[in-house]
Amino acid sequence: MPIKHKTETHPVVTSSLTILSLSALGVVFGDIGTSPLYTLKTVLALTGGIPNAQTILGSLSLILWTLIMIASIKYVSLAMRFDNDGEGGILALMSLFSLTLRPRPVVVAVGLMGAALIYGDGAITPAISVLSALEGLNIISPSFEHYVLPAAVIILIVLFAIQPKGTSTIGKAFGPVMALWFLTIGILGVWGISKHPSILHAINPMYGLTYLFSNGTTGFLVLGGAFLCVTGAEALYADMGHFGAKSIRLAWYGLVFPSLVLNYAGQAALVLDGVSTKDNIFYLLCPEELLLPLVLLATVATIIASQSIITGAFSMTRQAIQIGWLPRLRITQTSSTGYGQIYVGVVNWLLMFATVGLTIGFGKSDNLASAYGVAVSATMLMTSILLFMGLRELWNWSLLKAGVVAGLFMVIDAAFFTANLSKFIDGGYVPIIFAIAIYTIMAIWHRGRKIISLQLEEKSIPIDIFMAQIKKDSVPRSPKTAVFLTRTEQDTPPLMIWHVKKNHVLQSQLFILKVNTQSVPWCKNKNRFIVKEIAPNIWRAIANYGFMEQPNIPKLFEHLHKEGYNINLNDITYYVGHETIIPRSEVRLMPKYIENIFAFMHRNALPISDYLRLPQDSVVEIGRQIEI
Fold this sequence. Notes:
Layout: E1 2-3, H1 17-27, H2 30-33, H3 39-47, H4 53-78, H5 90-100, H6 105-134, H7 137-140, H8 145-161, H9 168-171, H10 174-195, H11 205-214, H12 216-226, H13 233-238, H14 240-243, H15 245-272, H16 281-284, H17 291-322, E2 331-333, E3 342-344, H18 345-362, H19 365-368, H20 374-393, H21 399-421, H22 424-458, H23 463-472, E4 477-485, H24 494-503, E5 506-517, E6 529-535, E7 538-545, H25 553-562, E8 572-582, H26 592-604, H27 608-611, E9 619-627
Parallel strand pairs: 4-5, 4-8, 5-7, 8-9
Antiparallel strand pairs: 1-6, 2-3, 6-7
Helix pairs in contact: 1-10, 1-15, 3-4, 3-12, 4-11, 4-15, 5-6, 5-20, 6-8, 6-17, 6-18, 6-20, 6-22, 8-17, 8-18, 10-15, 10-17, 11-12, 12-21, 20-21, 22-26
């Protein structure tokens, strides 16, 4: 029977829409909000030579319409309408298909590759953002040039080093700081536009299209640079569950989008007015006496953008672990009030080494721009493919209608991805290598766990036959409670068979427990814990959790006790398996080198007892060898 009780569920939003929108500024828009630091400069550098009026207007038009088509229409208006119980992002979208439609390899492959590519983006974003902000010091004084790289490395190391302590306290200031940032860049943009108001003609998309199709290879390369203005657009969708679609839309249309448009236009107006493009154009918008405060504000804004990327990597890792695509890792809750405030040590330090390595290796934001964009454009293309399937199969649109809408975005994303591939040799290979490595790890782990489950199912026997044998052999029954963890939904767990075989005793109260992760972010209370008595004093229980939740088995048994089950909470023994992977003596189910990788991950995964929060003094681990 279902057990009803209060459990850890999706946080209830009680804040006003305005407060949520302010908070979203500090988490959702950091990446896309700091793109003006390097985007226009990168685009104009790709045009070659000294840009003329047509080049400037065409470049700005491409940037503005990229913001409109990708960020405003694709993500804010369309993608955010595909939510999995309020959660967004490519993994949540993939799980939504698994929940509502039959699982298909193409959906899983697209979703996982998109998620893997985001990790590559996560390593580059902090590096390019912090470097581009500190490079404003070069304008204050050329003597500062030698200090930019060391300062960026120190800031990044400190940023990653404070992650174990959590960011809930300083996180409260993120929203107001980013609000100040967007107001500042918007005002600076207005000042720049006043220098050459004719720059506003660039809102006409024909300027961008004319430049794109009349400049051959150069125009195509510029398209890859223009894409940098939406590198944080995926975060608009991925962070939807934290703040809700309405608050994100309000912040986007009310402040972020207007500020970005004004700033890009202001920078372009200065160039049209004749300023040099050798220095960072963004800082040329600022009066000289206010330049140092702006550099400090930009540095803080890029740190906030980096923090958002790191937090997003932690959250995505938890989702991947829950749905069975990554090994169990130790996840630490760093805040008692914010469920999204978590820390994953392995991910944090690997990201730190990758980010600092990229910072030192590339040295300047201009060089990093070559590595940037490939991963994000590929992720966006994956999202467009899933959106097409969503329009067809979730919204039941006709093939023509879905093809026109999603096809438009796929064409745009494919163009951006192809343009960014031109940067492959100059650094674009970095995020691709990251993504392939992570995708491979996911695939190997999932395949290995599936093989283990099949191996264990082969050794199971029906529960009635097992209990009949217990009675026949007069096995003593101790007046205690035992919980046997299992992966199967029927028959006797191999753990229980082994326990009786070695100890020649069996407890009188038996729970056979299977923990499931459902394709929803938060499991409803009524479906949380299902218990069925399959024999006298033997219950088969299923504990269900969403992919955004952390299991807590002892808490569930506390509720069972309150519901009237005869359970001595101080005398429960949890039996869990500790598998050792060994080579198969017959035909291998996995190639040897893949088997070795899986065995390494399996040995170093977080013990299941820690993952399920089982009390250490009540756990019995039973070792067993599994041939794969």
